[in-house]
Design a protein that fits this description.
The protein is mainly α. It has helices spanning 3-18, 46-57, 75-78, 82-100, 102-105, 113-126, and strands at 67-68, 71-72. It has a two-stranded antiparallel sheet. The protein is extended.
């Protein structure tokens, strides 16, 4: 894929995210929108391309490297594997709720087969008893 075609596809995605119906409601709800992530070695122009697209579409650009203030982006989030990313996000949500809001954790419905499996994995990974 050449750079112009890639740029056009990204612009189409951004414009689709910005599109609204007659009432002003987004055609694609924000909860269904996903960030646009360009991966590649430093110095090939990823940020410049996104800056151009953002300017052309009249939006702000948030650019962040893989390591920011000594904190690396978890590799799973860079994998592009949507099912694994969703599983990771669910596990992190459960664990954070357990640690930060035990009052809410006690009310979570974690009875599904998938959640029980995630709880078991979390217990093995952290050594904490979550059930």
């Amino acid at each position: 894929m050449d750079i112009q075609r890639a740029k056009e596809e990204i612009k189409q995605t951004v414009r689709a995210y910005l599109a609204c119906d007659d009432t002003g409601a987004p055609l694609i709800p924000p909860v269904r929108q996903r960030p646009i992530l360009l991966m590649g070695p430093p110095g090939v122009g990823k940020t410049q391309i996104m800056e151009q697209i953002a300017q052309e579409c009249g939006i702000a650009l948030v650019a962040r490297p893989e390591v920011w203030h000594d904190r690396a982006v978890p590799p799973i989030l860079l994998s592009g594997h949507h099912a694994n990313v969703e599983k990771w996000r669910r596990k992190q949500g459960i664990l954070r709720t357990y640690r930060r809001r035990p009052d809410l954790y006690g009310r979570l419905d974690l009875s599904s087969k998938q959640d029980r499996r995630l709880l078991k994995e979390l217990e093995e990974e952290t050594g904490e008893k979550l059930t």
